[in-house]
Amino acid sequence: MIADAALVEAFEATIAADERIEPRDWMPDDYRATLVRQIAQHAHSEIIGMQPEGNWITRAPSLRRKAILMAKVQDEAGHGAYLYSAAETLGVSRDELTEQLLTGRQKYSSIFNYPTLTWADMGAIGWLVDGAAIVNQVPITRCSYGPYARAMVRICKEESFHQRQGFEILHALARGTEAQRAMAQDAVDRWWWPSLMMFGPPDDESPHSAQSMAWGIKRFSNDELRQRFVDMAVPQAESLTLTLPDAELRWNEQRGHYDFGPIDWDEFWTVVKGNGPCNRQRMEHRRAAHADGAWVREAAAAYAAKQDARRVAA
Ligand code: FAQ
């Protein structure tokens, strides 16, 4: 009992001092569970997030565009791998996490349940989806859990590059033929609102925010980060000479921020509950990829066992 109180006190002192909790440290069960939930959801998002863009690798308009897109999709796989490793430091195995995704017990980001209909969607995903991801993730570099914070440093650097390449795709299309420009505008029109939804429900309907902020897992609320993203995107849209599909979007001198129109939260929850345009397709694809990869996992395990046996014999 006395030891428990000392452990709680040490944990709280670390959080209060804005220092990092490391895997060896004692932590409350709920803190651990919250981190597993968020990091796993984040990792699954990176892996499922490879599908919408993977869809365009064979149809990229030039060799240069194809090479860049392939590198981006590979980066997302890498982000998934770092994040699964960060989650494993909390005592869950990668197999368990994969199982939870495949059985629908853990989530992935709503955004990856929308279809990629044209090449311009590669631009809109890079600019808006990676842009929103950066705004959300830069504060996580200061998350109270060390392995998650450190994983996020490299991830954010790569996401910044992704965002620029998306912007550059749209920049080229917006200055291209009339049809290319229309394609760019259509992609932005379709991806704008789902990108705003990425930040999660409004603060007064976000069950986890208050506790996650008290623990230093989240540094800003969902609405604060959403506003930061809108403020960043509006001038960038102007420089692209594209419009954002919101008639209520305007600068509010008093607030020092852009006002924006209401978000369709019914659409968000429909997608989160599994009934978005591509939820079933994404999960079927993920399940098939997992089954197809069984022989690779078996071969890797057999090779590792052989290496271990050699080491023991030596
Ligand atoms: N989608 O109480 P809150 C990327 C759920 S970026 C689905 O506010 P929390 C890069 C939430 O889980 C995308 N579900 O929850 C990339 C909870 O449900 P639960 C990934 C959502 O955790 C770019 C419930 O709603 N980024 O992959 C969503 O405090 C391009 C109540 O919500 C991250 O995961 C949503 N959008 O705040 C890859 C960032 N929002 O679990 C490829 C890290 C909320 O109780 C291509 N995560 N929910 O059943 C976070 O910052 C937080 O988890 C939030 C949600 C802000 C997403």
TrEMBL record:
<dbReference type="InterPro" id="IPR012347">
    <property type="entry name" value="Ferritin-like"/>
</dbReference>
<dbReference type="GO" id="GO:0010124">
    <property type="term" value="P:phenylacetate catabolic process"/>
</dbReference>
<dbReference type="GO" id="GO:0005829">
    <property type="term" value="C:cytosol"/>
</dbReference>
<dbReference type="InterPro" id="IPR052703">
    <property type="entry name" value="Aromatic_CoA_ox/epox"/>
</dbReference>
<dbReference type="InterPro" id="IPR009078">
    <property type="entry name" value="Ferritin-like_SF"/>
</dbReference>
<dbReference type="GO" id="GO:0097266">
    <property type="term" value="F:phenylacetyl-CoA 1,2-epoxidase activity"/>
</dbReference>
<dbReference type="Pfam" id="PF05138">
    <property type="entry name" value="PaaA_PaaC"/>
</dbReference>
<dbReference type="InterPro" id="IPR007814">
    <property type="entry name" value="PaaA_PaaC"/>
</dbReference>
<protein>
    <submittedName>
        <fullName>Phenylacetate-CoA oxygenase, PaaG subunit</fullName>
    </submittedName>
</protein>
<dbReference type="InterPro" id="IPR011881">
    <property type="entry name" value="PaaA"/>
</dbReference>
